[in-house]
Amino acid sequence: MRKLFAAALLISAITLNSAPAPAQNEAQREFMAGLSLEYSPEAAPDYQKAAGHYERAAAAGSREALLALSRLKGPLAPLWRDGASWRDSLLAASRAGWPEAAFQLAQALEKNEVPREGLTPAQFYLQSAASGYGPAALRLGEMYLSGSGNLNKDESQAALWLTVAAENHEPSAALALGKLYYEKNPATASRWLERSDLPEASYLLGEIYLKDRRFIEAVSAFTFSSDQGYAPAHLSLGLLNLDNEFGRRPNPREALRHLKIAAQADLPEGSYHLAQMYIKGQGTPKDTITGAFWLSRAAAKGHAEAQSEYDKLTYNFTVGQKKRLERMIEEGFSPTMQTTVQ
User: How far apart, in whole angstroms, are the C-alpha atoms of residue 284 and residue 137?
Assistant: First the structure.
């Protein structure tokens, strides 16, 4: 990562001016000297001397040197002294026009890693986002969505900055936009969700397809999401494999496989429907004790129907059945949890 950072600074320094003036020549020489000391392949890095060259380069007008100094003075970095020093270095780099430095300063202010002294995270997120820096635009959009960081909740401003972030390839921003429009404008939500490769985005896209009765596309979206370990997608696939509404023959064994994953992830609906499969013997031998166990797990998560059915199911259990069930609940263990379901 440090080598990539240095390469980026080097390219920026070389391409900044095709015909540098004398002062710019001096700034570039000092900056290159700092890089050679920091990343020398023959000798151990000399960060103090490198910083001296960077400071002289910065004084001669090098923006790259300001960014290098802010990096060297950060937490766990070689020249770390205190939060105030790091803040001042980031502030200098952000004032020189580096959106990355403004973003880092905003993060440090938000996490109280540096003294504020009148500075606010929002002003530096805004500075960075206005330059098209995706991570800053994403965070600014999130702050407007929640009304945090001394910003009033404002969905229009949130949508504006999330769009900037999504256009700069931030998948979390595309997901946030999809969720923002999910209820009121599913078509717009779909367009944004399709641009995110996050599992939750694929799951929500599958739900929209399902409402539009686009069954094949829904299954594809749920499968993509479930393959990335997203438990709600397993729940949806489990229920779809029990349903013949779309002209597909039910597949109880496949439903059982998906519902086990959803239940083991403590989704109450997953636990409830898995319990029903054991109680009815769908895709598995009938096992009312295991069914009761999963009803108890669903009820513990607030599933009212599961609690009612649990009471009815266990009312006529024998003493032996009740003891076995109590032991399973106490240990939090069911026979269905013995094997990891892939």
Answer: 50
